[in-house]
Amino acid sequence: MPLPEELAERAREIDAGRLEPVPAKDAATVVLLREGLEVYLLRRKSTMAFAAGAYVFPGGSVDPRDTDHAVAWAGPSPKEWGEVFNADERTARGLVCAAVRETFEESGVLLAGPGADSVVEDTTGPGWEADRLALIDRGLSFADFLDKRGLVLRSDLLKPWSHWITPVIEPRRFDTRFFVAVLPPGQRTRDVGGEADKVAWKRPADGLDLAHRGEIFLMPPTYVTLRDLSACDSVAQALAVEREIVTILPRAVEIEGEWRLITT
Fold this sequence. Notes:
Number of domains: 1
Distance between the termini: 12 Å
Radius of gyration: 18 Å
Domain Nudix hydrolase: 23-224
Protein name: NUDIX hydrolase
Cofactor: Mg(2+); Mn(2+)
Oligomer: single chain
InterPro entries: NUDIX_hydrolase-like_dom_sf, NUDIX_hydrolase_dom, NUDT19
Shape: globular
CATH topology: Nucleoside Triphosphate Pyrophosphohydrolase
Keywords: Hydrolase, Magnesium, Manganese, Metal-binding
Number of helices: 8
Strand content: 15-25%
Largest sheet: 8 strands, mixed
Order of helices and strands: HEEEEEHHEHHEEEEHHHEEE
Structural class: alpha+beta
């Protein structure tokens, strides 16, 4: 993947030791699936500072309050998630909470329910929308949101998928764990605005085809995720795939005078 000149210049400066990479923030991304093996994609607004115009999955940075022990929890524990993602228990708690919170903020889908074996059936209506907006502007913590509605986070509805770290040449960097989840029965995604100006359900192979034709822009983690999912014939098959979580940190290399980004 050839680098634009701005990033190529950063690569030269970092390679020469004249520029220090910025730290990567912990973040979580959720690949929502529905029957027919379609994935939910959002196009980030062209005004966004990071990944402008790219089609991405719901996700974002961990809010410090996502690590709150008050978050009602059902399913694999933070300790178990930490073992999966090679993270300490506090970080793992924040990652899972951020995954569920960001999915609700960016799609209206909530992976939580009144109990350990139930899930919310409908998240539409003015009350839900008010809470969603309060989460976005950080006026409401995720723990308080769940407590207010008598809900527990369903970590068992998440499947670990991958771990990507933004290249050191980027001015904004994220240490992102990717999860996969199925759209809960009765719930539906909706275009809720915010950081995205367009949303769509796509079959993984169709998303890749659009990217190959230059009709949409995919960042490497999104491209690779769609590529891997395109090998599956159904949602059940995707959930049954055994995933080894290996950290992927794409790096910039100079090849015959041109700076490129590689993932190997």
